[in-house]
Design brief:
Number of domains: 2
Largest sheet: 10 strands, mixed
Number of strands: 14
Helix content: 25-40%
Order of helices and strands: EHEHEHEEHEEEEEEHHEEEHHH
Structural class: alpha/beta
Number of helices: 9
Shape: globular
Radius of gyration: 19 Å
CATH class of the largest domain: Alpha Beta
């Protein structure tokens, strides 16, 4: 690849009881062919000393151990602050349940070199176990309904055509952000904890005048929801998944004044409640109700800035 290493990248992984996934991700990162990057693993107070195990197996990483679970937003912010303090020109958030192609980082760097006023780049994300099917090719935002749409969702890669590299939001599964965009827009909003924090951040960065693009030749593979998929009496997904999805969707509607979207999303949530009632999944039913209540009651919090 014809690229020079003046762009320095801190790749940030948040680990929370996901040792097996994080190890596989770090192993794939060892094959990356772009020379100027550093992997930062933020351990979100895993039940076992997984951070120490990862540092032993992968001594090249920078390990940051949190004393409590700060969620996806808070955990990544810890890593981002470290990267900014160290002077990196870009940060790349990367889910720990992903594996990367060796040239994924170089392709995203190349997109940054070619783009003007570019703040965020997302790679093409495929399913890990269905590598010919798209998990995400970026996102579009419907401002009237307050709906975040994933482009290419479950479409065969061979049939997909990128109409425009411009996107409205990038998924936190993998997004590379410039230092300038970070300093002008602020960090991830920790009120969201997990889910929709990437949409809110992307829209905020775009509002500051930065563009967001897909780098279709940059490819990674995603396990998709590994941290939230654990079999129990109420199914695979935890009730907390539904709580944060509902609450954060409402927070997003309120922030961007997408008032027409309240009817649309509340109807969705009502059908979820009926489904959970019928399946006797009462914890999930209560989680949706609590998410609606907290989404309307909580005061909107501002994101942290650096320094």
């Amino acid at each position: 690849m014809a690229s020079t290493p003046e762009i320095s990248v801190a790749i940030i992984l948040v680990n929370w009881n996901g040792l097996e996934y994080t190890e596989a991700c770090l192993e794939s990162l060892r094959q990356v062919d772009y020379p100027n990057f550093k992997v930062v693993v933020v351990d979100n107070a895993s039940a076992n000393p997984e951070g120490k195990q990862l540092k032993t197996s992968f001594p090249e990483i920078e390990l940051i151990q949190n004393s409590q679970n700060l969620g996806f937003a808070g955990g990544n912010n810890v890593g981002i602050c470290w990267a900014l303090e160290q002077g990196f020109s870009h940060v790349c958030l990367l889910n720990n349940d992903t594996q990367v192609a060796p040239d994924f980082l170089g392709e995203m760097v190349l997109r940054f070199r070619q783009g003007k006023s570019l703040g965020v780049v997302q790679p093409m994300i495929l399913f890990l176990h269905q590598p010919k099917k798209i998990w995400s090719a970026g996102g579009k935002w419907n401002p009237k309904l307050g709906r975040a749409v994933t482009l290419g969702d479950r479409e065969p890669l061979v049939n997909y055509r990128v109409k425009s590299p411009q996107i409205d939001w990038a998924t936190g599964c993998c997004m590379m952000v410039s230092r300038e965009a970070l300093l002008k827009s602020g960090l991830l909003n920790e009120q969201y904890f997990i889910y929709f924090e990437d949409v809110e951040w992307s829209l905020r960065i775009k509002k500051q005048g930065f563009s967001l693009e897909l780098a279709p030749k940059a490819v990674i593979y995603h396990e998709a929801g590994a941290a939230s998929k654990k079999s129990h009496i109420e199914g695979v997904l935890s009730p907390k998944v539904f709580y944060y999805h509902v609450r954060n969707q409402i927070l997003l509607l309120r922030k961007y004044k997408a008032y027409m979207g309240f009817g649309y999303h509340l109807a969705r949530f009502f059908f979820w409640m009926l489904y959970f009632l019928g399946r006797r999944r009462f914890k999930k039913l209560k989680a949706v109700v609590k998410g609606i209540r907290d989404g309307f009651r909580e005061k909107l919090q501002a994101p942290p800035a650096w320094p």
